[in-house]
Specification:
Layout: H1 7-28, H2 34-43, H3 45-60, H4 69-95, H5 98-105, H6 108-120, H7 126-147, H8 154-157, H9 161-186, H10 192-218, H11 220-228, H12 230-253, H13 256-262, H14 265-276, H15 284-307
Helix pairs in contact: 1-12, 1-14, 2-4, 2-10, 2-11, 2-12, 3-10, 3-12, 4-5, 4-9, 4-10, 5-7, 5-9, 5-14, 6-9, 6-13, 7-15, 9-10, 9-12, 10-11, 10-12, 14-15
């Protein structure tokens, strides 16, 4: 059910910020471990989340969220799945290039649709499902182009480390969206933005505690590296905070699957960043995948509009 059409611009901007953040994070990966590159998202993103909550309350009036044990449990679970998903995505970059790692993780759109249907009975229109099909087809074309595989070899490619990391990351990102949506609903706030920003601040705080404790135990040197690389790390954190604020707002006001489908515009931005920021070449097959993903997003938008 769509409660506010703010989900649409939120989903589009989420895709932009996520692609931008991932591009910067890919360069940071050369200076930090997988866990360190993931931690900076929350460590430097949390202050921004608090600023967003405070600014929103000053502009729109104070709000009193209902924070209970159920909310904290859902927020903690969502934060944990996002941590693991982020680490898997960064690991995927180590096996294949920037575009491929993101392309495989973008199967999260169809995974989110299936999980939401099984767990919460969220139904999408035929147009939206058509958008999912085309979007997934576009992702597969991107993967085929990057790995130089023939169509008959696509199934075998799914057993490669990069594909497994990307697919697993997509599944966990999809589950993260569902957990965040349920956590936000627990706040009992009529304003979806207020609920989303509150959930974001709590989730990021819990992530700092969970992930920070793990790194302090297993990789103490990484904590110093995270501070030393503050210039780049803070950029990742700010972009992650902005992206998550948009994702959480989308989840709070529309079906998770629909938000994830429209968020596939990230693939479009990813190709742009890969070419302009990371200097990677774009192949003709990647252009075809780009077109398919674009059409898929448009169909999903139409499906969401007619259903909403």
């Amino acid at each position: 059910m769509i409660t506010s059409f703010i989900w649409l611009p939120a989903s589009l901007f989420a895709g932009l910020f996520q692609a931008w953040r991932t591009a910067v994070q890919q360069r940071l990966r050369a200076e930090l471990s997988v866990s360190g590159a993931s931690l900076v998202r929350y460590l430097y993103g949390f202050p921004l989340a608090m600023v967003l909550v405070t600014a929103y309350s000053l502009v729109h009036g104070r709000f009193a969220p209902r924070i209970d044990s159920q909310f904290l449990l859902l927020s903690g679970a969502g934060g944990l799945t996002q941590i693991v998903a982020t680490n898997l995505l960064i690991m995927a970059f180590g096996y294949r290039n920037f575009v491929v790692g993101t392309a495989f993780s973008k199967t999260e759109a169809v995974q989110a649709a299936v999980f939401a249907w099984l767990a919460f009975g969220e139904h999408l229109s035929l147009l939206a499902w058509s958008g999912i099909a085309l979007g997934v087809a576009g992702v597969l074309v991107l993967a085929l182009a990057a790995q130089k595989l023939k169509a008959a070899e696509i199934l075998r490619s799914l057993g490669q480390p990069a594909a497994l990391c990307g697919l697993s990351a997509g599944a966990l990102f999809a589950i993260t969206g569902l957990l965040v949506k349920q956590a936000t609903a627990e706040l009992r706030l009529a304003d979806p933005v207020a609920g989303a920003l509150t959930t974001l601040a709590v989730v990021m705080l819990l992530q700092i505690v969970m992930h920070g404790a793990y790194i302090a135990w297993r990789e103490p040197a990484t904590l110093r590296a995270v501070v030393v690389t503050w210039r780049t790390s803070s950029q990742v954190g700010i972009l992650a905070g902005l992206g998550s604020a948009c994702w959480f707002t989308g989840f709070a006001s529309a079906p998770v699957a629909l938000v994830r489908i429209v968020g596939q515009v990230e693939v479009i931005f990813t190709l742009a960043f890969a070419r302009l920021y990371l200097r990677e070449k774009t192949r003709p097959q990647e252009a075809l995948g780009l077109v398919l993903v674009s059409i898929g997003v448009v169909l999903a938008l139409l499906g969401g509009w007619t259903r909403g």
